[in-house]
Amino acid sequence: MDFMKPETVLNLANIRDALVRMEDTIIFDLIERSQFFQSPSVYKPDVFPIPDFQGSFLEWSLLQLEKAHSQVRRYEAPDETPFFPDQLLKSFLPPLNYPPVLASYSNEINANDEIMRMYIHEIVPLISAGEGEQPENLGSTCTADIEALQALSRRIHFGKFVAEAKFRAETERFTKLILNKDVEGIEDAITNSAVEEKILLRLLEKGQAYGTDPTMKYSQNPQSKVKPEVLVRIYKDLVIPLTKKVETDYLLRRLEDEQ
Ligand SMILES: O=C(O)C(=O)C[C@]1(C(=O)O)C=C[C@@H](O)C=C1
To answer: Chorismate mutase domain spans which residues (predicted)?
Structure first.
């Protein structure tokens, strides 16, 4: 899909292809993070004497990166959602002027606080190499976290494109549901259980393939770095439900643009 060509962005098959590719990035990022211990000091506020900053080492690191990336226009792209939208810097490059494909309020749909909470409290304990601290790996842990968080955020906020494509395909049906503020009805309308099942099955296969050394496949006990069942659980309980929440939050406001 090409963000300069709106028709390619709102094609549900293209969107789903992009989501499939993002699985690979997410799995590899989680595998990368899994070699380190939990290291709670990365996530607790005010553990380190960071000058002029109150918050965790991870928050500080991610903010520095977002400031730098905002200057190379990362957050002008409609598929990138910052964790610190109020603290970005202006780019000295000319603006990109992507043709609008999403509703005018789409930047206000930002699930990154929830993604951060879910990642720290649910995903990190599931995938880390052990509990406790690894002081020599604070930086590597934190950069692995940032990669994983950004990949998860991009995937989950892709729900906006899915929602827009679905709204355009069934405008009348969604208009009724939105006017009735029928959250359950919207959730039902955006759910495609067959697609979800396919994703979970594919994750199981990918987890078995990517997480192991392929030359060891005939050995008795090839070790997965992140257990395939854990990947499935992360998607089933966290990634897909949050994607659906982004879709629903986006759709609930979708008639604002029609007025
Ligand atoms: O592919 C879709 O139709 C989506 O809405 C995306 C997604 C997902 O998160 O992967 C979410 C809800 C559907 O039930 C199926 C899949």
So the answer is: 143-247
| Candidates 33, 166, 225, 244; catalytic one | 166
Question: What's the longest Cα–Cα distance across the chain?
Answer: 64
Structural domain includes residue 1: no
The per-residue pLDDT for range 2-42, each reduced to its tens digit, is 898 988 999 999 999 999 999 999 999 999 999 999 999 99
**Is residue 190 a part of any domain in this protein?**
yes
- 181 is an active site residue: no
Query: Domain span at residue 199?
Result: 6-258
Query: pLDDT, tens digit, for every residue of 205-224?
Result: 999 888 777 666 555 555 55
Q: How far is CA 89 from CA 65, 70, 81, 111, 114, in A?
A: 11, 6, 14, 21, 23
Number of structural domains the chain divides into: 1
Q: Return the half-sphere exposure (C-beta side, CA atoms, 13 A cut-off) of residue 39.
A: 22
CATH number at residue 167: 1.10.590.10
Closest by CA position to 122, among listed 3, 236, 25, 215:
236
- Cα(192) to centroid(ligand 1), Å: 6
Sequence-distant (6+) residues with CB within 8 A of 168 are: 10
Is the residue at 22 inside a domain?
yes
Q: Is 16 in the pocket of ligand 1 (CB under 6 A)?
A: yes
Is residue 61 situated within a structural domain? yes
